[in-house]
Amino acid sequence: MKLSTKGRYAVMAMVDLATHSDGKPIALADVAHRQEISLSYLEQLFGRLRKGGLVKSVRGPGGGYLLAREISDTRVSDIILAVNEPIKATRCKSGSADGCIGSGKGRCLTHDLWEELGNQIYLYLSSVSLADVVNRRVLGSSGMLFRHEQQQRSQTPHAAE
After folding, report:
1. What is the third-level CATH fold of 5-85+129-155?
2. Domain boundaries along the sequence of the chain
3. What is the DSSP string of 95-145?
4. Span 95-108, pLDDT tens digits
5. 0.85 exceeded by the pTM?
């Protein structure tokens, strides 16, 4: 499964907004510059995020976007789904009568495996809030591995000494 730039950029932009807002609207041009994302692409994404009730727009001088909810109430899955990014790992279309194989042959032998993977990804992304990302609480086991490696390096004597 591959998450497209649409979902990744929407999450990046929402984290940027949460990090830099301080209760004041943020111009999309600033987000685009900090995150190195095309402004026109961000405008499209924020139109969808606004329709999804995740951001509010403020017009006029000093205008921009604000989060519509508390960061602890916004799930990463909400962001991804708001920009119409499907969270699935199967190759067939949902509700397709043809299934994965096409030509009316039904589902592939591994359909249930990939469908469950998509469900697990959705469950994980639903368990992570914007606050978790902003406060760097999503390292999990990969974070423990990183901290262990850092600790090992700091305890190993340097060869030049």
Report:
1. Arc Repressor Mutant, subunit A (1.10.10)
2. 5-85+129-155
3. T-SSTTT-TT----TTHHHHHHHHHHHHHHHHH-BHHHHHTT---HHHHHH
4. 555 566 666 667 77
5. no
